[in-house]
Design brief:
The complex is a heterodimer of chains A (about 425) and B (about 180). Chain A is mainly β and about 425 residues long. Chain A folds into two domains: about 1-265, no CATH class; about 270-410, Immunoglobulin-like (Sandwich), CATH 2.60.40. Chain A contains six helices and 23 strands. Chain A has helices at about 5-10, 15-20, 50, 85-100, 105-110, 120-140, and strands at about 1-5, 35-40, 55-70, 75, 150-155, 160-165, 170-175, 190-195, 210-220, 225, 230-235, 255-260, 265, 270-275, 285-295, 300-310, 315-325, 330-335, 340, 350-355, 375-385, 390-400, 405-410. In chain A, the strands form six sheets. In chain A, strands 3, 4, 5, 7 and 11 form a five-stranded antiparallel sheet that branches. A four-stranded mixed sheet of chain A has the order 1-12-2-6, with no helix packed on it. In chain A, strand 3 and strand 4 form a beta hairpin. Chain B is mostly beta strands and about 180 residues long. Chain B has one domain. Chain B contains two helices and eleven strands; from the N terminus they run αββββββββββαβ. Chain B has helices at about 10-20, 170-175, and strands at about 25-30, 30-35, 45-55, 55-65, 75-85, 90, 105-110, 115, 130-135, 145-160, 180. In chain B, strands 1-3-4-9-6 form a five-stranded antiparallel sheet, with no helix packed on it. In chain B, strand 3 and strand 4 form a beta hairpin. In chain B, about 35% of the residues are buried. Classes of the chains: A mainly beta (about 425), B mainly beta (about 180). At the A-B interface, strand 15, strand 16, strand 22 and strand 23 of A face strand 1, strand 3, strand 5, strand 10 and strand 11 of B. Strand 22 of chain A pairs antiparallel with strand 10 of chain B, so a sheet runs across the interface.
């Protein structure tokens, strides 16, 4: 049985409904080991090709052991360890919510509970995602020393299988095998990320502040993948025919396949544009370039770059930063000034496929611009062709989300610290 | 707002001495003569002033005489072109000729530049100034900021006139065979 990403959480809610709906006498067997197969990305995401060859680890943190409920075909959870611990308190809160025992007021009034309506995936995800985040905050802290049940693999089919999981509630954490349990941006796998577009359904209400979420990283050659920790309970039930998330339907499942749904964040590199003058005129001149590539949603991303020659140089360069590795970039000289033309030996526009920057050794005094791979360098040569003057300035505006503009002027992109 | 000073080649010596002048002013020269016998010799410098007021760029260009006695001489034509990132939107339509603004002095040419329709003689300045309103087409969250680059380039050529004395912008801007003579 393969479960969509959000269904892993949805199954949790089954516990609530079970109490009202499940017949007695068919107790769940909690002695069986459970097997979970994690596929790192959905087929439609297209991430599999990039992920292949990367060693990835899945950690199953047991948050609470399953606890059978007598004469009922379901289970609840045993409270873990020290009752003063954050984990104990959070599991207790979750159990309270699952059982609906927080509604002391309605019980006190003696009112009957309404028959539960099977929840939608969306509703279940919204309800329990905060728990996943809170549990992640506990188990990913440096103070938490309990070891997860782990599996790792050099990804070929982008799946990881972990067997013999005791029945219970787990937090699934997926991360790069070679990364550490820290928030170090280079060597750690924990990353606090802003709510991303493909998870907007879990964001706060409209108009509220965006929040940061705890994610874990897998890093490939060209991209970083951010995974949200997910809650998972085994064994579980999911009747594909009924499509209702409660334990009143279907058989207990001890072998489960789930999809993770990471967010892909392209890693960036740099491009160097070199401008040479084979012959120069007496006056200053500015050259302007468009640097373009296909961004998210296949939209063209364009940056404008300018280089000013004031008469003293015959060669300068500008560096364009934050271009995704692997991007096919086209650089077009869109302005040569009235007094210059592009040399016949200079192709326009050159196209390059952006490669990663090499690592810079710690303490190195080498100018990083010198380390830009040759594949990421384009060169334009211009000849002086006639009279006329003219040059340009770079106006760099800082635009805020509230609509404020502030501007600074530079002679060119190199003067502005590149772009 | 940070401003940078550009003092360019023709004032090389002054550049060293005056590089701390706190304004966005720059100079270039247009010394040229037309092939075919009609010599235009220019002794002025074209001075460009850019200001940024919030999201508006205000650009004026002045033909500054090198010597006081050059005032009123050495006419040039000037034009402006702007470029920006894919996140940027440039609105320069307020400079345009349109019914009700038929006396506008900036017009768009075939190279997507905005050219000033009058010749600028030494001592004269473009009036009105050329303005560009900058905005972003990217929706930002309240706490987000972004960088938006706008490059504005300027060009000048010696002014050319028809027999009746009218500015001949097309000839001046499209002429590719005039040669440089340093004054």
């Amino acid at each position: 049985m393969r479960i969509k990403p959000r269904q892993t959480l949805a199954i949790l809610l089954s516990m609530i409904l079970l109490l009202a709906l499940a017949p007695a006498g068919f107790a769940v067997d909690l002695t069986k080991g459970n097997t979970v197969t994690v596929t790192l990305a959905t087929p439609e995401s297209g991430y599999a090709t990039d992920l292949k060859g990367t060693r990835v680890q899945s950690d199953f943190y047991l948050l609470a052991e399953a606890d059978a409920i007598q004469n009922v075909d379901s289970y609840t959870y045993k409270l873990p360890g020290n009752q003063d611990s954050d984990l104990y308190k959070l599991v207790d809160k979750l159990i309270q919510e699952l059982n609906g025992t927080d509604s002391e007021e309605s019980e006190a009034e003696g009112s009957e509970k309404p028959t539960p309506t099977p929840p939608t995936q969306e509703a279940v995800f919204r309800q329990f995602e905060p728990y996943a985040q809170d549990f992640a905050g506990i188990v990913l802290s440096s103070d938490y020393t309990a070891q997860p049940i782990s599996g790792n693999i050099v990804v070929d089919q982008t799946t990881i299988t972990v067997s013999e999981l005791p029945a219970g509630l787990y937090l699934l954490v997926i991360h790069g095998y070679d990364l550490q349990k820290t928030e170090d941006s280079e060597t750690g796998y924990i990353k606090r990320a802003e709510q991303t577009s493909n998870t907007e359904e879990t964001s706060n209400e409209e108009g509220s502040e965006p929040k940061s979420v705890l994610t874990t990283r897998v890093v490939t050659k060209n991209n970083e993948y951010l995974f949200r920790p997910q809650l998972l309970t085994v064994p579980t039930k999911l009747d594909d025919n009924v499509q209702q998330y409660n334990t009143a339907y279907g058989d207990w499942v001890n072998q489960l396949s789930i999809y993770a749904k990471p967010t892909q964040v392209p890693k960036n590199s740099e491009l160097k544009i070199i401008k040479k003058l084979s012959a120069k005129g007496p006056d200053p001149v500015s050259f302007v370039f468009y640097v373009e590539w296909k961004g998210p949603d296949n939209k063209t991303v364009r940056k404008v770059v300018t280089l000013l020659f004031d008469g003293s140089d015959v060669e300068k360069y500008a560096v364009v930063k934050d271009i995704p590795i692997g991007a096919e970039v086209m650089v077009t000289e869109v302005h040569t000034g009235i007094a210059y033309k592009l040399s016949e030996t200079s192709p326009n526009p050159p196209e390059v496929t952006i490669e990663a920057m090499p690592p810079i050794p710690e303490g190195s005094s080498v100018n990083p611009d010198e380390l830009i791979p040759n594949a990421n360098v384009v060169t334009f040569i211009n000849d002086h062709s006639g009279p006329g003057g003219g040059y340009g300035l770079l106006n760099r505006f800082t635009v805020s989300g509230s609509g404020d503009f502030s501007g600074a002027q530079y002679e060119d992109s190199a003067d502005a610290g590149n772009s | 707002m940070k401003k940078r000073t550009l003092i360019l080649a023709v004032l090389a010596v002054l550049l060293v001495l005056c590089s701390s002048i706190g304004s966005a002013i720059a100079y270039f020269t247009t010394f040229a003569s037309a092939r075919g016998g009609y010599v235009i010799q220019l002794g002025g410098k074209t001075e460009i002033t850019e200001r940024i007021v919030e999201n508006r760029k205000i650009i004026s260009i002045k033909n500054t005489p090198e010597k006081p006695e050059d005032a009123g001489k050495y006419p040039v034509f000037v034009r402006v072109k702007a470029f920006t990132d894919s996140d940027g939107v440039l609105d320069d339509s307020s400079n345009a000729l349109y019914p009700g603004n038929s006396d506008a002095l900036w017009e768009r040419d075939g190279e997507n530049c905005w050219r000033y329709r009058k010749a600028l003689y030494a001592g004269e300045e473009t009036e009105p100034a050329f303005t560009i309103d900058v905005s972003s087409n990217r929706r930002l969250k309240p706490e987000e900021t972004m960088i938006l680059d706008v490059v504005v380039v300027y060009e000048s050529v010696p002014a050319v006139f028809t027999d009746d004395g009218s500015p001949d912008l097309d000839t001046a801007w499209e002429t590719g065979d005039i040669t440089i003579h340093r004054a």
